[in-house]
Amino acid sequence: MSQTGPVIDELVASALNAPGELVTRLLGSADLRTARLGQAVRDLQDVPPEPQDADACDGTRVIDPVTHDPAW
User: Fold this and answer.
1) Which stretches of sequence are listed as region Disordered (predicted)?
2) pTM score, whole prediction
3) What angle do CA 69, 71, 72 make, to 5 degrees?
4) DSSP state of 68
5) Which tens digit of pLDDT belongs to each residue from 30-44?
6) Which of 20, 42, 48, 65 is the most buried (most CB within 10 A)?
């Protein structure tokens, strides 16, 4: 669950799945706000996805109980 809320999560998910032609058209717009939207969508698409629940332990990693070293 994201800390930003379901509406923002849906907006980001839609931006990540936006077709390249749409992003190109937004970037080429004469309207500054539309071009900035296109740049924001492209920036979102260029960020490598984070693994879900990166801090959550799924029980497959062995961690040293004293030093909390995952390489133990």
Assistant:
1) 45-72
2) 0.59
3) 75
4) -
5) 999 999 999 999 999
6) 42
